[in-house]
Predict the 3D structure of the following.
Amino acid sequence: MSGGISFDSVSHTYRPARGRAVLALDRVSLAVREREFLALLGPSGCGKSTLLYLLGGFMPVETGRISVGGEPVTGPGPDRGIVFQNFALFPWKTVKQNILYGLEKQKLPRPEREKRAQEFIDLVHLTGFEDSYPSQLSGGMKQRVAIARTLAIDPAILLMDEPFGALDAQTRGLMHEELLGIMEHRPKTVVFVTHDVREAVYLADRVAVMSARPGRIKEIVEIGHNGRPAPEVVKSSEFIDKVDYLWDSVRKEALLAQSQKSDG
Amino acid sequence: MSALKRYFPILLLGLLWEIAPRLHLIDPESVPPLSTVAVAWWNLLRSGDLASNGLSSLQNLVAGLALGVVVGTALGVLMAWYKPLDELVHPVVRALYPMPKSALIPVMILWLGLGSASKIASIFIGCLLPVVLSAYNGARGVDRVLVWSALAAGATRRAVLWEVVVPSALPEILAGTRNALALSFILLVSSEFVIGQRGLGYLISFLGEGGAYDAMFAGVLTVATVGFLADRIYLAIMRRALAWRE
């Protein structure tokens, strides 16, 4: 299956049970190339997570069209794996059971499932924690379980919703390296939602900046790392310039969002 | 040592129960001393009355409670999942919730006769609503990202119900079941008062009417102890089932 994604004039309105309807996304059009790492950057409340949830098929696409490999998205599917900010592990399942869950759904034969689960536990350096419950793990370990659980079913597309937002800076840095390492060996199309500019520039091939609500694609910036970025890249003037530029771009939107809020 | 300290007030109460009637601070006819009650309890045990009535009570209790928990959980979870069912059932649940379910015992007798079926049905009805509401609240509180994670992994909506929603709601369901357990004892004993024939409630009322007050107290004490032990055992099971939480 092809991993190219296209958003075609996608709008989305939230209609809360009480209160007035809010236009979250306004005619968003965007194409994500196959095996590209695209970061969606924007101030909080700009609809970037909504865009991801629509692509995941968790909410119905009401206006416009989202297609994956030419096929319209109509619901969730194992071709699009997702990693959430708050890990979303099944707390009543152990590390191994969490990873096995998706493999069972994919109807893999038992020996194959066991082998694959162990392989991914080892991949995210959680060997020895197979039988631990999520409540016994640190935030970084939980997120590694969530990533392993999603990668184990080998989706063509990886959706990440501020996956490292709940982690401390140290752990976040380690997770970046781990993610890049995994991507090197198992390339996928990645849509990565974040409000961390440095994270976006470091990880992504392209960064799409979203405007304040209603969310639109404001601009797209090519990062163009040559292969996997080395950790030293963050010291290069090119990197710093891009971060500065994007920081300004997002800051304007964040200020705009703030003034919208104070307007009521 | 700490257990002794914790239950010291109960020990004190037992002591008071023994001494007060002996010193005629309370009428020993109305409250026989604890030792007299203990002897009566021993006699009830030896005669086999306690075992046969206790077994009957326990069977009806387990049947009614199990039925209430299974049906209540299913109904509560489905209400949380299917809005039309919620809209249909919720007003009924809300209207019937405050009603004392023991008022339905005569209705059960009318429909099911003077036997175990009426007792089980009464316990079932008494247990049902607390379980329905706790399962409903638990299922409504399920984190949507857990549901999404399961769907993205390829689970069907029906599988999500059993594999994600029910386990997510388990802490609430188990807490509701504990309330149901306490209610089941109330309904058990009251239905046995009304229906008679057998059971610990029947034994208590039979002995009381016959003027065997020491034995009647022995019956009351037995019910209280069994209820207490059932709750303790239930708590231990609940803790094990929820061991995955911190």
User: Anything to note?
Assistant: Chain B has a mean pLDDT of 94. Residues 157-195 of chain B form the longest helix (39 residues). Chain B touches chain A through 21 residues (CB under 8 Å).
